Amino acid sequence: MSAPRGGMPIAELAATLEHVTTSGGGRTRTAKALAILFQRTSGPDEARILPYLLQGRLGPPFAAPTLGMDERRIAQALAQAAQRPEDEVWRLYQQLGDLGSAAAQLLGAGQADSATAASGLTVQDVYDRLRAIAETAGRGAAQRKVSTFADLLRGLPVAAIPFVVRMAQGKLRLQIGDAALIDGLSFAFAGSTTLRPTIAHAYNVRSDLGLVAATLRSGGAAALAAIHPAPGRPVRAELAERLPSAQAIIERMGMVLVEPKYDGVRLQVHKEGDRIWLFTRRLEEMTAAFPELVEAARRQIRAERAMLDGEAVGFDPRTQRLLPFQETARRRRVHRVAQMAESFPVHYYAFDLLLLDDEDWMPRPQRERSAQLRAVAQAAGAGTIEVTPQLETRDVTALQRFFEQQVRQGLEGIVAKQPDAPYLAGERRDVWVKLKPEYAQGMADTFDLAIVGYDRGRGKRAPLGIGSVLGAVYDSMHDRYRTVARVGSGLSDAQWRHLREQLERICAPQRPPQVEAILTPDVWVEPRYVIEVRAGGITRSPQHTAGAGAKADARKRPRSSGYALRFPRIVRLRDDKRAEDATTEEELVGLAKLAGQAPLST
């Protein structure tokens, strides 16, 4: 299929997205529809911006500007574009429950047949105008944003109006995840999913699907080999599996390198000359939030160019103790940065080396990376940056002793690593395995669950507007979220209110297409926020779809019962994690088997 001259019309993109969201059909069907879009892009520049727009952003996660328009400003722009009173916009919004649909109705079908048909706005045109709005600053910026957005709305075909308005709101609702985009690119350039591993690797080391798409569009699959890690572009974090005991770790892994597990904020530290970047595991840049770590990186990292992985943990100088995660996470906020850095500085515990000068160190064995890390990040006196202590052993007793020592010091536990394994960016395999005290006590570990819905409060919870949330694990193979728990305890009233306010911004009119569920909450939400939940165990449940062994939702019962968490309780909100970082379904099933649950029926 040939690419359109002058660029892809925004109407074509909107029509495809409408088809994807209304027809269903699963990940493969979605990927093939996306493949047609990629094939029809006019060139690398248009291919680059397509993944951003499909996920409701204006750039990669670490460098995407926000539009800077709340719903009030969007409604003002819509009123201006439609030449209607603003209160009429709000009435229609409340009636339809979707500002995008309200915008399409107000602007009217005649718009598509007149100026818009002649203007032929392309995907690139719309992207450039949205970027211009995002970059508008200075005195009177708010009103200039409103006027520019109104002009854009007037020039759109009606079919594209809901897409653009929802994107401005941050409520795109397409639920096109990384996995669907990777498969779409593979279908576009190979006709099948054979390119999936190559594309995924390139994405994992640069965290930029726009870059990957542009590279494929310009140079084909062979050009992906030129994509390497680089300072200023985060690598997707390697994640750890879990096992229930020191004995199980040695039996599975043999010789291991064992390190403490800290309860902090996962951060990558990038250095290029005097330039320092800090990135979270959600791929957000947080350089401004940790000025003391930036200065320490300039002073302590002995290399011109380097990329480190590690954990930032808050420190109380008065008590000489490390702070819990909740206190460290407060540093993510950008206000009162200098005061927070002085009162509660962070210690950074580096545990891996990803890049050194011009060489990618991720393919090298863990033992080599760990040894070189100690040479690169040597402490300078009382250094803010430290390298995590490490024990190499194949002895169960020595491993258990090291584990108990970390727990006595108030740490979360340990991580055991295979000495000869590479750094597996963006993957969760058993080359890294964590052990925490809960396992030794015979309890289930905490689980990171993506929130997919919530129930409105009743009784004492009625004033809060929320009584419980529906949590799900993630099936990375099929890009699906499957429910495992309804959770209604663990938060204060203030925390419940804050969570409800966050969820209200991402509510969905119906079950999101990525979610498979039998239970129906009062309100569906897009999978975006993660909660850490502690449970007393894992049990079988016909009400949940996690581990059910087949597609399971209200229309089709699974072939076997799913799994549920027993006595779940929210430990904390995990703002540092994406929904795709939730506990995987595979991990849940593995833990259930370790706990003696019956195997899946087929």
User: What's the end-to-end separation, in Å?
Assistant: 41 Å
Rg, rounded, reads 25 Å
The tally of beta strands, per DSSP, is: 22
User: Could you say what the CATH architecture of the largest domain is?
Assistant: 2-Layer Sandwich
Q: Describe the sheet with the most strands.
A: 8 strands, mixed
Query: Helicity range of the residues?
Result: 25-40%
Given the helix and strand composition, which structural class is it?
Answer: alpha+beta
Task: Compute the number of structural domains.
Answer: 4
Summed over residues and divided by their number, the pLDDT gives a mean of 87
By CATH, the superfamily of the largest domain comes out as DNA ligase/mRNA capping enzyme
Looking at how many chains there are and whether they match, the oligomeric state comes to: single chain
Strand content: 15-25%
Q: Can you count the helices?
A: 23
- Broad CATH class of the largest domain: Alpha Beta
From the 3D structure, determine the CATH topology of the largest domain: D-amino Acid Aminotransferase, Chain A, domain 1
Word description of this protein:
With 602 residues, this protein is α+β, with helices and mostly antiparallel strands. The chain has 4 domains: 10-55 and 175-226, no CATH class; 71-169, DNA ligase i, domain 1 (Orthogonal Bundle); 239-440, 2-Layer Sandwich (D-amino Acid Aminotransferase, Chain A, domain 1), CATH 3.30.470.30; 446-594, Nucleic acid-binding proteins (OB fold (Dihydrolipoamide Acetyltransferase, E2P), Beta Barrel), CATH 2.40.50. Strand 3 and strand 4 form a beta hairpin. The model is unreliable at 112-118 and 598-602 (pLDDT under 50).
